């Protein structure tokens, strides 16, 4: 445990991780309007879509058009999920500052999610990472189920370490460690980070929490105390994971922001604009978003 | 920051703090059935009702009958809120192990909540505390708005200290420090506890969080690290505060339990029975309770 950082970098993953598991189709025009609103919030990075095959995630089948139509705000990093060379090609065409590849620390989750065993996944990602780096892009490696897997249970720190090692070896700039099913408690965060710190600089590690059991804010607090300064979050807490049964959406950007503001940690984000962007997508989805802050500020 | 405690004492305040702000009337029979279910969960204490004037909190106007009809489980402490001598008389008649008096660290909140200024409140409470102690009861002093007040904003640690001092002086066994409007972040918890620790033993302090902005679990985590071992919580997170606009219910017992189980901290509580008692009251209230765990386990 050390002091708290003075600044935090928030990556808004709502347009990707949020929307990919929502049932309701959001039109390309509404997505573009919404992402343009997000661009004005002051958030550091926006993962604006996923370039996986449209059949896999129909909700994001318009990734190319979204990428071409959104306004790029100066100072905001625009990234997208890319599963393979075809996805990267489309993403580069649509315009990205960052490419995110993904795999799982759990063999079974990896198999269910991307239909490949872990060792078979490396060569594919390595090619993508290399090509993205050649194109001058920032590359993030998402590692799913770093704490618990819905199929395998508790995941050993060594398994996470091994996947992280390979990804860094392949050239990723950042590792985003995912509590995919939202089951971790702060002592698990502490244990994992202690296991990774001897091998990776803290500023290369991003934490990505889902909030299934309401533990995400406490987990972020622990990570902040341990010197982590990058987090993924989703406006209003929308989303989930189609391949992790029962999992809820990411921790809400609104709640993370409330925490960070309260702690006096700078994010550059305007809370009012976050609320406006939350209400916009809440209305489009036609359902109440899980963030307590959205409901609170709406009724205040 | 120190290690984590091995045991935690949870006081279930759902039948009092939870129900007092719910609009829907729960019949005496249903309350009794529900409290009997709570008694079988393994929770350390149940605050079963409030003996304030029925006009003030109509939802709990049957406190006397509830107290007389519930089964008393061995090892469970049954307590109730008592505002004055009349309330205490009724509570003693109905049967209590513990009496809880209450006031606010904020002058304005105290005035709005109990229609008295802080200095005028002490003599009334002192008489109740003395009488309850004479009757051999455990006495807890609730101190509301210890972090922030909806009318006065940030509350100074000195103001909390002063109220706590008077209550301890008057003979209370425990102080329950309330984040009445659920706005605190972990650094506020740390600051307040550091301010109180030189004057009061840690094991006399209870923390009572509302979860308006989703910070309660992180706040509890901080308090645990600082050696606090007693917390108030409410099944499913039901409730609120009629005199603190916008405030949400207490932190959900279900979520606290998930945290504590994950940390390996013993509570003696059976998670399945907590879920059953949550579903029971959720059905009676006819609305979804805010705890993420209730929804998660119901769908699992």
TrEMBL record, chains A, B:
Q: Which residues cross the membrane?
A: none
SUPFAM superfamilies xref list: Aldolase
Which biological processes are named by the entry's GO terms?
ketone body biosynthetic process; L-leucine catabolic process
Q: Name one Pfam family in it.
A: HMGL-like
GO MF terms listed in the record are:
hydroxymethylglutaryl-CoA lyase activity; metal ion binding
Q: What region holds the Pyruvate carboxyltransferase domain?
A: 8-275
Stored InterPro entries: Aldolase_TIM, HMGL, PYR_CT
**Assigned keywords, A-Z:** Lyase, Metal-binding
Q: Which residues form the signal peptide?
A: none
What the entry lists under Gene3D superfamilies is as follows: Aldolase class I (3.20.20.70)
Q: Which family does it belong to?
A: Belongs to the HMG-CoA lyase family.
Name under which the protein is recorded:
Hydroxymethylglutaryl-CoA lyase YngG
């Amino acid at each position: 445990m050390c002091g708290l950082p003075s600044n935090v970098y928030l990556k808004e993953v709502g347009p990707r991780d949020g929307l990919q598991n929502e049932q309701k189709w959001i039109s390309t025009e509404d997505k573009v309007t919404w992402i343009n609103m997000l661009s004005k919030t002051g958030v550091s990075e926006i993962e604006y879509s996923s370039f996986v095959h449209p059949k896999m995630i129909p909700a994001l089948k318009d990734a190319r058009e979204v990428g071409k139509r959104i306004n790029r705000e100066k100072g905001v990093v625009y990234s997208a999920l890319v599963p393979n060379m075809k996805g990267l090609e489309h993403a580069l065409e649509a315009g990205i500052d960052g490419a995110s590849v993904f795999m799982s620390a759990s063999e079974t989750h990896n198999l269910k999610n991307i239909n490949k065993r872990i060792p078979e996944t490396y060569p594919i990602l390595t090619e993508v990472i290399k090509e993205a780096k050649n194109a001058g892009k920032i590359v993030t490696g998402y590692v799913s189920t770093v704490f618990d897997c819905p199929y395998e249970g508790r995941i050993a720190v060594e398994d996470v370490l091994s996947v992280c090692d390979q990804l860094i070896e392949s050239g990723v700039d950042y590792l985003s460690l995912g509590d995919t099913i939202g089951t971790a408690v702060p002592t698990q965060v502490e244990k994992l980070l202690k296991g990774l710190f001897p091998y990776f600089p803290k500023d290369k590690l991003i934490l990505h929490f889902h909030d299934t059991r309401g533990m995400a804010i406490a987990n972020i607090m622990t990570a902040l105390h341990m010197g982590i300064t990058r987090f993924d979050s989703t406006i209003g807490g929308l989303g989930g994971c189609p391949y992790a049964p029962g999992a809820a959406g990411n921790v809400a950007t609104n709640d993370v922001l409330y925490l960070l503001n309260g702690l006096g940690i700078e994010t550059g984000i305007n809370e009012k604009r976050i609320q406006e962007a939350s209400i916009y997508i809440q209305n489009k989805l036609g359902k109440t978003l899980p963030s307590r802050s959205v409901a609170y500020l709406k009724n205040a």
